[in-house]
Amino acid sequence: MILIADSGSTKTDWRLIDNQKKSISFSSNGLNPYFVDDERVKTEILTHYPKTVKYERIEKIFFYGAGCSSPDKCQIVKNGLSKVFPLAEISIYHDLLGAARALFFNESGIAVILGTGSNSGYYNGNAIIQYVPSLGYILGDEGSGAFMGKQLLKDFLYKDLPQELHKKFLKKFNLTKEDILQAVYNEPFPNRFLASFTKFLSENISHPFIRDIITFSFSELFKKQLCKYPSYKHEKIGCTGSIAYYFSDLLKQTAMNFGADISQIIEFPITNLIKYHEY
Fold first, then answer.
1. Rounded Cα distance, 274 and 208, in Å
2. Domain extents for the chain?
3. In this structure, is the dihedral angle defined by the CA atoms of residues 166, 171, 176 and 182, taken in order, positive or negative?
4. Fewest C-beta atoms under 10 Å: which of 71, 141, 258, 265?
5. pLDDT at 123
6. Distances (CA, A) of 164 to 22, 161, 197, 204, 217
């Protein structure tokens, strides 16, 4: 059997595939090595892995993960996987390559991830050959859930939200300034906390102020990332992730404003990654 994983900062989608191409799905928390160690990787798998499949049946693992951008970070994930699957051949890749393979297979294009965080790269049909540095939720992640959540929280704390939205926010979350600052600066996974507020944005997307937050976030994505690719107006641009999927109309409109076109949007890369690794 082979095991394929697509891991963001919030969630990891897993697929077990046998020789008859039958699959078993399960999920776990995100396994970004900037936020978890190898023991956490091991614990997450042991907690969520289906009990009906023996660990020793896994022959190959293809893991695509956020944060797997350097050998030392990849090694953290590999060490955790090796503790559970000592007999498996393990390959660790950046989630951006996973997005590109899921979107374009063996063709070229600009792959964009828009989930809790954001990332982009130019894919030549085989590898990512150009990318804009991903600076994370504090310095970057334009267009992501964390970026949008941060904008919403700033508007709330500065009392810049329209009164009706301010009341809705208080009623839904009942958060004080101290609660928010504690979660952002002292609690684990602040990026997930920030991204969790995109549900509020989605629920109130008809409000012009909310639409402005989302449009501003996508405009920053183009200004800081996508416009850095010289031929972005002429390349296929594909997007993966929940933010791209649920705010697709505003994303496509923003792309048009920059003279670009979004050729496809898929919420979960894992389905196409199965096709890519079919054997």
1. 40
2. 2-98+270-276
3. negative
4. 71
5. 94
6. 50, 8, 17, 11, 22
User: CATH number of the domain at 2-98+270-276, please?
Assistant: 3.30.420.40
Q: Give the 3-state secondary structure of residue 237.
A: strand
Judge whether 29 and 89 are in contact, CB under 8 Å: no
At 199, which amino acid appears?
A: K
Position 218 scores a pLDDT of: 97
Q: Is 148 helix (H, G, I), strand (E, B) or coil?
A: helix
Residue 163 is predicted with a pLDDT of 95
CA distance 247 to 125: 27
Burial of 234 (0-12, 13-18, 19+ CB in 10 A): exposed
Residue with tokens 């496809």: 264
φ, ψ (nearest 5 deg) of residue 70: -145, 155
Q: What is the mean pLDDT of residues 10-28?
A: 86
Exposure letters 145-156 (e unless 16+ CB within 10 A, then b): bbbbbbbbbebb
